[in-house]
Design brief:
This protein is of the alpha/beta class. It folds into 2 domains: 151 residues, Spo0b-associated Gtp-binding Protein, Chain: A (Distorted Sandwich); 166 residues, P-loop containing nucleotide triphosphate hydrolases (Rossmann fold). It contains 6 helices and 14 strands. α4 packs parallel to α5. The longest helix is centred in the C-terminal third of the chain and has 15 residues. The radius of gyration is 29 Å and the shape is rod-shaped.
């Protein structure tokens, strides 16, 4: 399935039905009077979060959504039928922005949460509404009102508590494949991860915690270079970041500093978020490197370093214990 996390759509609520001009014509009832009914209300357009959806792919092929119009009024003061609400399902974690007003309309996070994004027009009034002592036979009636129209930007931000970040080939996909049942593409060349991958890691309590594997970042990612800029938004909702540094890289310290610079440049509080610094691929390091590199990273970045190997399982239990501690999960 193709992963689409941004879409632009146009929505139009239904127009209200027209009121009518009618007079009661009934045998043995003289001067029956006006009896024109009101028009029905136009249909609203509503977005609803659906946990069964994972992508905005549906909006790639359909971009215009229009609710039905209300029905016109009838004789004998009959009100026209109101149109049904047009319900549009989107993935949980979808932000909705009005492009015309540059206004955030809402953020649909919980399954079943709804957001009215376009209100249907009111129905017109029939001539029965204009009956008065001074006008016993009004011929006045009104037309229905147009429904709201909007141009919308939909932006999906994945719902994950833990985000895996790092330069390409830092071992993020391998780690999430070991910790969870996720099966991302893994290869020995950069940018094998082209879309975010989600994996559920079992907590000590038995509940699941969602981990997100974000495509590798490069220098300039926050300004649009590489793939990172498109997917940095997916770690905005995370509570903890795991910063993976490839221990087999020619300069792991420089790699770590590049990522920190990109998180700072992107903003949105990512640099202030709890972050675990992890040196990966320990199986490729000799004893001297295993002693020197963690100390150098810790001194340079000013925080403890966890050494792991997703291939051999070294340090994974300790890493998860740190994650549960940051999340406030009892072990």
């Amino acid at each position: 399935m193709q992963f689409i996390d941004q879409a632009r759509i146009a929505v139009k609520a239904g127009r209200g039905g027209d009121g009518i001009c009618a007079f009661r014509r009934e045998k043995y009832v003289p001067a029956g009077g006006p009896s024109g009914g009101d028009g029905g209300r136009g249909g609203d357009v509503v977005l609803q979060a659906d946990s069964n959806l994972q992508t905005l792919l549906d909006f790639k092929y359909k971009r215009l959504f229009q609710a039905d119009d209300g029905r016109r009024g009838g004789p004998n003061r009959s009100t026209g039928a109101s149109a049904n609400t047009l319900l549009i399902r989107v993935p949980c974690g979808t932000e909705v922005r009005d492009l015309g007003a540059d206004l955030l309309l809402g953020d649909l996070i919980d399954n079943g949460e709804q957001l009215v994004i376009a209100t249907g027009g009111k129905g017109g009034l029939g001539n029965a509404h204009y009956l008065s002592n001074r006008n016993r036979a009004p011929e006045k009636f009104t037309e229905g009102k147009d429904g709201e129209e909007r141009e919308l930007q939909l932006e999906l931000k994945l719902l994950a508590e833990v985000g895996l970040v790092g330069l390409p080939n830092a071992g993020k996909s391998t780690l999430i494949s070991v910790l969870s049942a996720a099966r991302p593409k893994i290869a020995d060349y950069p940018f094998t991860t082209l879309v975010p991958n989600l994996g559920v890691v079992r907590r000590p309590s038995g509940d699941g915690t969602v981990f997100a594997d974000i495509p590798g970042l490069i220098a300039g990612a926050a300004q649009g270079a590489g793939l990172g800029h498109d997917f940095l938004r997916h770690i905005e909702r995370t509570r903890v970041l795991i910063h993976l540094v490839d221990g087999s890289s020619p300069d792991p310290i420089a790699d770590a500093e590049v990522l920190l610079g990109e998180l700072e440049a992107y903003g949105n509080g990512l640099l202030e978020r709890p972050r675990l610094l992890v040196l990966s691929k320990a199986e490729l390091l000799d004893e001297e490197q295993l002693k020197a590199l963690p100390a150098q990273l810790s001194d340079t970045l000013g925080q403890p370093v966890q050494v792991i190997s997703a291939v051999t399982g070294q340090g994974l239990d300790g890493l998860l214990q740190q994650v549960w501690q940051e999340l406030g999960v009892s072990s």
